[in-house]
Write a structure and sequence with these properties.
The protein is of the alpha+beta class. The chain has helices spanning 21-26, 96-109, 111-116, 130-135, 180-193, 201-209, 218-245, 266-273, 323-343, 369-376, 412-423, and strands at 56-60, 65-69, 76-84, 87-92, 141-145, 150-153, 158-163, 167-174, 248-249, 287-291, 315-319, 395-397, 402-403, 427-429. Helix 6 packs across helix 7 and helix 7 runs antiparallel to helix 9.
Length: 436
């Protein structure tokens, strides 16, 4: 792997041996590589965005908390627990009903605060007891993440939790092709709060449309067609409305750099930052409106009337993407989608609903939970300051018998006997004062 692409010189070489350094460098399970995996559309984002396609490390301590939130742009996320104490996770499904239910509970209990800070949930600074959410009719699920385990969150799914002690985790985002309509929902929400997105949704949508060879399923390609139809229809409808109102089209008089659609690189990201709508902070990817009264303000087509009080005759439109180009893109995607549909003729294909779709059902208990609980029961949690951990933490059984660990390496044999004894009982971690 090199810069998010496959190194052609290594394609025919054998797979590195599991557990070796080369294997870790090249495997897609390395969180540095997941955003660039073949079926992740974030591979087209070639600018490093911390916490999005560049992993963040998280160091926790006893009861350190990650507050309720969902991911930027409603992306998927994956979190790996490297070492240390377990993490307690709580999650709410990402369906529209459940996500809005959580937001309603927040508004009910924090009405004054959210009146002053409408986007409070985006600040990731507020934690609510899952009990309050359950009382509000919001389904809440929980899990315990142990070292060596991954946790994946789905688009728009709220999650939060805390650590049982010192630990180290790593997290990053990714997006599969079914994410596109979730990204559209996130984009609309951000515009309502005037919150800049981490990248332009319109740019990524058209970048996906210019990499049709990556579309493998009719179901997801159909979602791309629907999103292209939506944004193009709105763009042309608002353009015509503004031009009829008297806004001038200067696209023939000024030379604007064409939008780059092969990838989102550093130069593209910098250019997008310079054409944010002054009202909703949306990247004006296709066109924008400006006025003679300001040399810095631009507006998206929705909010040109908020920019100033000048008459429409003083305002002008700058267009980066002409109608013919947008229509050709949509036509190509539709034709490719029909080919995918035709390839399914006569085949029985299970159209698995997304875990965040409105008609999907979430089981009360996930498969494998009981097996995992049995596997983890009685396990000693080593929270020593030495890395890799060498010494077991002072632990106490549920019967209340204190077992003191020894820091003497020569006593390893006797400690193994004590470890075995604790494994046979239900062990909990204790703090410095011997309290659970």
């Amino acid at each position: 792997l090199e810069g998010g692409t496959i190194d052609v010189e290594k394609v025919d070489l054998p797979e590195p041996k599991f557990g070796t350094e080369d294997y870790y460098k090249e495997t897609w399970w390395n969180l540095n590589n997941i955003p660039c995996a073949p079926d992740s559309i974030l591979r087209h984002v070639r600018v490093g965005i911390n916490g999005i396609n560049v992993p963040w490390m998280y160091y926790g301590s006893l009861f350190s908390t990650f507050c309720w939130h969902n991911e930027d742009n409603y992306l998927y996320s994956i979190n790996y627990h490297h070492w240390g104490a377990p993490k307690q996770w709580y999650g709410v499904p990402g369906s529209k009903k459940d996500a809005e239910g959580l937001e309603k509970v927040f508004k009910d209990y924090l009405s004054m605060k959210m009146r002053d800070v409408p986007d409070l949930l985006h600040h990731i600074t507020t934690m609510f007891s899952p009990r309050l959410l359950k009382q509000g009719g919001v389904p809440v699920y929980k899990l315990v993440q142990n070292p060596g385990e991954f946790v994946v969150t789905f688009p728009r799914a709220f999650h939060g939790g805390f650590s049982y002690g010192p630990n180290c985790g790593e997290a990053v985002n990714f997006a599969t092709h079914d994410w596109i309509h979730h990204g559209a929902d996130a984009n609309e929400r951000y515009r309502s709060f005037a919150r800049p997105a981490v990248f332009s949704h319109d740019r990524l949508t058209f970048t996906m449309a210019n990499h049709l060879q990556e579309q493998k399923a009719h179901r997801t390609c159909r979602l791309l067609v629907a999103e292209l139809e939506r944004v193009i229809d709105e763009e042309m409808r608002l353009r015509n409305k503004l031009l009829e109102a008297g806004v001038r089209d200067l696209s023939g008089e000024i030379n604007l750099p064409p939008n780059r659609l092969d990838q989102l690189d550093e130069e593209s990201a910098d250019y997008d930052d310079k054409r944010l709508c002054h009202a909703c902070k949306h990247v004006c990817f296709f066109s924008c409106v400006a006025c003679e009264c300001s040399q810095s303000k631009v507006s998206c087509l929705r909010h040109s009337h908020y920019m100033c009080r000048c008459p429409p005759e003083k305002k002008y439109m700058m267009i980066w993407c002409q109608k013919a180009e947008m229509d050709k893109t949509l036509k190509d995607v539709k034709e490719f989608n029909e080919k995918l549909k035709a390839s399914l003729s006569g085949k029985v294909v299970d159209d698995v609903s997304s875990p965040t779709s409105e008609d999907s059902t979430v089981p009360d208990i996930a498969p494998g939970v009981h097996e995992d609980m049995a596997r983890q029961r009685g396990k000693i949690i080593d929270l020593s300051c030495v890395f890799p951990p060498r010494y077991p933490l002072t632990a106490v059984s549920t019967k209340g018998n204190m077992e003191m660990s020894s820091a003497d390496d020569n006593a390893e044999d006797s400690m193994e006997v004590k470890r075995q004894k604790l494994r046979e009982e239900d062990v909990v971690v204790v703090g410095p004062a011997g309290q659970p």
